[in-house]
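Colleagues,

For the teaching module next term, I've prepared a clean inverse folding example: a structure given as tokens, and then the sequence designed for it. I'd like students to try predicting residues themselves before seeing the answer, so please don't circulate the second half yet.
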């Protein structure tokens, strides 16, 4: 189990939308959310009421921004993803993010990561939810970008196939 999770805006917003922010705390012993990530979530609060719930929950885990190494700056990612990855490089942390380019950057740096889909799968594996399928589809309805093929593969691996 990872020592700490550094959570990006997308998973934070998605789990607020499905009212399951509690899963982060149940799965990770330590949670950190860079200040830049909270700023990103706050900037969308006028358009998304769940952002207020995400911000209220995340404030307890806010951490300051840190200097970004050149190896991360080169990727020209968003400010939140950049801070998440910089923090992961600074310690034994898992990045919790969904952005494709950020995931490629994490892989290039040989760091640990988990996405929103992976959080649900891990919650099922740990017995925190009875079935993954409804939560996966709630995340998708909430805005998670994932192919039906990947969903079916993930659910089949849990024995929740069609």
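(Answer key — instructors only)
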């Amino acid at each position: 189990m990872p020592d700490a999770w550094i959570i990006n805006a997308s998973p934070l917003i998605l789990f607020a939308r499905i009212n399951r922010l509690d899963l982060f705390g149940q799965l990770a012993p330590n949670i950190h959310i860079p200040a830049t990530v909270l700023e990103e979530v706050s900037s969308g609060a006028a358009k998304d009421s769940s952002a207020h719930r995400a911000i209220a929950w995340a404030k307890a885990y806010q951490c300051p921004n840190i200097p970004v190494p050149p190896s991360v700056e080169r990727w020209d990612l968003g400010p939140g993803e950049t801070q998440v990855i910089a923090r992961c490089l600074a310690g034994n942390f898992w990045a919790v993010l969904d952005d494709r380019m950020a995931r490629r950057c994490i892989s290039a740096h040989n760091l640990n990561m988990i996405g929103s889909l992976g959080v649900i799968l891990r919650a099922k594996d740990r017995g925190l939810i009875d079935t993954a399928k409804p939560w996966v589809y709630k995340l998708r309805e909430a805005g998670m970008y994932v192919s039906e093929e990947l969903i079916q593969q993930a659910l089949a691996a849990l024995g929740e196939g069609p």
